[in-house]
Write a structure and sequence with these properties.
mainly alpha
Length: about 110
């Protein structure tokens, strides 16, 4: 998936597309390159995409960014990937572990 084929939201979708194709290293690199979303009606949705990829990859830095952004702006509900509260709950557990700790496989 390139930016030209994914449209303006490709940077936020690309890590998940790469994960679906079992290209974890490329997904991790794409996730590290994800910029701040534009401040519009899709801000929360884009942060939720980044959060899902961060959880799948164990990327604590992006988890922290997404968590902070979703806490600050949660609630519009114009477009949703499920309740923002569910994404925040999913982010809390790994963020409670010390940085560098192995994720649980439950």
């Amino acid at each position: 998936m390139s930016t030209s084929t994914g449209g303006p939201y490709a940077p936020w979708a690309r890590p998940l597309v790469l994960l679906a194709r079992d290209r974890r290293a490329e997904a991790a690199a794409a996730l590290r390159a994800v910029p701040e979303p534009p401040h519009d009606l899709l801000t929360e949705a884009l942060w939720c995409l980044a959060a899902r990829a961060a959880l799948a990859l164990g990327d604590r830095t992006t988890m922290e960014r997404a968590h902070a952004a979703l806490l600050a702006g949660a609630g519009s509900g114009m477009l949703t990937l499920g309740p923002v509260a569910a994404h925040l709950d999913d982010l809390r557990a790994p963020l409670r572990r010390p940085a560098g700790a192995a994720p649980s496989r439950s």
